[in-house]
Design a protein that fits this description.
- By secondary structure, the chain is of the alpha+beta class.
- The chain is built from 26 helices and 19 strands.
- Strands 2-3-1-9-8-10 form a six-stranded antiparallel beta sheet. A six-stranded antiparallel beta sheet has the order 4-5-6-7-11-12.
- Strand 4 and strand 5 form a beta hairpin.
- Helix 24 packs across helix 26.
């Protein structure tokens, strides 16, 4: 929605206004509606503004409090405005005249460093507290809004994007090889490090206090795996879900400009679009713009795996929707990559990112500034598979057999596979499972499957790192613990950060109803049988959307395979590029990639483009090579 940036010298050195000016200029794309800087001796804060909400039209940032001892810069949308206005006793002025940043600053004045716990919405903000000589930074619970920073013995500098940090000559530009290893293995659980040494991300749901002798990172919010919500009937659960989900959509429709919604045809995006359509229709008869990727020229063998046009049309056939279609099969998956790399700042593993790039172009052309997106409905609602092993643990064998058979039938899977994969296998302790694999197989290390250079892997101890990650992910047992673990995945933050950077390339603000804290807490706390029962997954959401979603959509169990366009089209459009990096310019990645293994994967991929592992091995290696071409270390 905007850009924030700032500098703090611990030794009292005055901030150079030209550095703040350079940071503002390089972040101009994030805030095309103006900007400003505030500077006082050794501290400087800056802001670039992108108007979205009606209240944002009134904002002038950085903002000082009335006493002049607090200054804030923020990229934020606050959703519990009415509650905060009441608690902060700001009812002496019309709510429409109170900006979100005013609410954050007033919350800090009242509650201090515990204020993020009181805020609902998406935010990244930094407050200079002159009284305590500290910078207080905070980021929203799921990490929708980004915040990067660098700290040395004398300097703290932060920004919404990494590129702005390099406006200061003191900030080093050095490749973080450990992040390269994580990237090649496609492990993204680390929420802090980046591709640059010493440049880190403030993790989601964390605050950071910075002073001359202070560096305190604190987690202010986490899910409670023991909290339970018990209602009296299925209908009550469905009604409660519907009310919370509707509010999660509604608060994200607060816009002074036309609003759009991504629409793939899946349960998540379709639910958002249908609820948003109803809300907007009641607001002065407004229309909702929907944006959908289609693949009219794709070969039939691939089209049948990806085509969701039937489900998309079920939604767009409703009144007050203005659909837009993007023919994604006519563009290369590496389209505009030089621009993409500039905006992304880092190497990235997102094979379907090109779809977003094409869609955001269409969004911008239609003057839409706020776009609702269905990330990450799967994790928020939960498919609920962990209910099956829980039945076995509780000796409910008859119920387990009934539920597993129903799921097998509804999902068109062999019953024996369901019993093993979702019932028995999760009961095997992870340590025993790994030991069994080591005893009965002679497979290469897991990183070898991704064509990682073995010398590089051993030098960075990647095998040990992978073992540590597996141990961290092995503690969840109950369905609620498994649900919490999926929502705590670093991959969600990673995906949200990439989406933010790409959308801001087109001056678009993304909003994610399924990242609403109220909705997440509700879905985690309800009983597991509300998520999985009678062969249905995500059951509470299906019930809640009974008279909103078209019947065929509410009942669908299939999911599009977006790789059915990416994998064949990457080979069709970019064969020369792939072979240039893999065969002619492999020296650029040879320190990190096992080149013979990469070439073998490419030969297999070129013979069978739908080979999942080989396609991803080729993609990650080539993407790394192209990114390294675009950076200067």
């Amino acid at each position: 929605m905007s850009a924030i940036f700032g500098i703090y010298y611990f030794d009292g050195q005055p901030v150079d206004a030209s550095h703040l000016g350079q940071m503002a200029e390089i972040l101009n794309h994030r805030g095309i509606d103006g900007g400003d800087i505030w500077r006082q001796n050794s501290v400087g804060l800056g802001h670039r503004m992108l108007w979205t909400t009606p209240e944002s039209l009134l904002e002038k940032l950085p903002l000082k409090n009335s006493a002049g001892n607090l200054v804030i810069t923020a990229d934020a949308r606050i959703d519990n405005r009415d509650e905060l206005i009441d608690l902060l006793q700001l009812s002496d002025q019309p709510p429409s005249k109170i900006t979100d940043t005013q609410l954050i600053l007033a919350a800090y004045e009242k509650w201090g460093e515990s204020c993020p716990e009181r805020l609902l919405g998406d935010f990244a903000f930094v407050i200079w507290d002159r009284r305590q000589q500290i910078l207080f930074c905070a980021r929203d619970p799921m990490g929708v809004k980004p915040l990067y920073y660098y700290r040395s013995h004398n300097l703290f500098v932060f920004a919404s994007e990494i590129k702005a940090l390099f406006c200061l000559p003191e900030v080093p530009r050095k490749l973080n090889e450990f992040r390269v290893g994580q990237y090649l293995m496609r492990v993204f659980e680390d929420r802090e490090i980046t591709f640059y040494e010493d440049i880190v991300r403030l993790p989601a749901a964390h605050s950071l206090t910075i002073g001359v002798e202070t560096h305190q990172l604190r987690r202010y919010w986490s899910l409670d795996p023991y909290r339970e919500i018990r209602l009296s009937s299925n209908q009550e659960y469905a009604q409660a879900y519907r009310e919370i989900f509707t509010e999660a959509v509604n608060c994200r429709l607060r816009s002074a400009f036309p609003v759009g919604s991504m629409l793939s045809g899946g349960l998540d995006s379709s639910s958002i679009a249908c609820v948003a359509r109803e809300i907007l229709a009641r607001q002065d008869n407004k229309k909702l713009h929907t944006f959908s990727a289609i693949f009219p020229g794709l070969e039939s063998e691939y089209l049948q795996l990806i085509d969701e046009r039937f489900y998309v049309d079920l939604v767009t056939a409703q009144e007050k929707i203005k659909p837009h279609y993007i023919e994604a099969d006519s563009s290369s998956p590496l389209t505009n990559y030089d621009q993409v790399f500039w905006h992304m700042d880092e190497g990235f593993c997102a094979p379907n990112l090109y779809l977003n790039w094409l869609i955001y172009q269409k969004v911008q052309a239609n003057h839409v500034r706020v776009v609702l997106d269905g990330i990450d409905g799967d994790s928020t609602i939960s498919h609920g598979h962990a209910y099956l092993p829980e039945l076995i643990r509780n000796f409910q064998f008859k119920r387990f057999l009934k539920e597993s058979r129903a799921y097998a039938s509804r999902s068109y899977l062999p019953w024996g596979q369901v019993i093993w994969q979702w019932g028995i296998q999760p009961l095997i302790p992870d340590c025993m499972w790994r030991l069994s694999q080591k005893i009965h197989t002679t497979t290469k290390p897991i990183w070898a499957d991704n064509a990682v250079n073995p010398h590089f892997a051993k030098r960075l101890q990647l095998s040990e790192y992978l073992d540590q990650q597996m141990e961290l992910l092995s503690g969840a047992v109950t369905p609620r613990e498994v649900h919490c673990q999926s929502l705590n995945s670093g991959l969600i933050q990673y995906v949200l950060e990439m989406a933010d950077k790409l959308a801001n390339a087109f001056s678009i603000s993304l909003a994610f109803p399924f990242c609403d804290r109220r909705l997440i807490e509700f879905c985690v706390a309800i009983p597991p049988e509300q998520k999985f029962s009678a062969g249905w997954t995500r059951l509470v959401a299906r019930r809640a959307m009974a008279d909103i979603l078209p019947t065929e959509l509410r009942a669908r169990v299939s999911k599009a395979n977006l790789g059915a366009n990416f994998k064949p089209k990457l080979l069709e459009f970019e064969r020369d590029t792939l072979e240039q990096i893999i065969f002619d310019q492999s020296d650029s990645i040879a320190d990190y990639v096992d080149i013979p293994a990469l070439r073998a994967a490419y030969y297999r991929y070129s013979t069978n483009p739908m080979a999942e592992e080989d396609a991803m091995t080729v993609y990650t290696a080539v993407n790394l090579g192209k990114w390294l071409e675009n950076v200067d270390f």
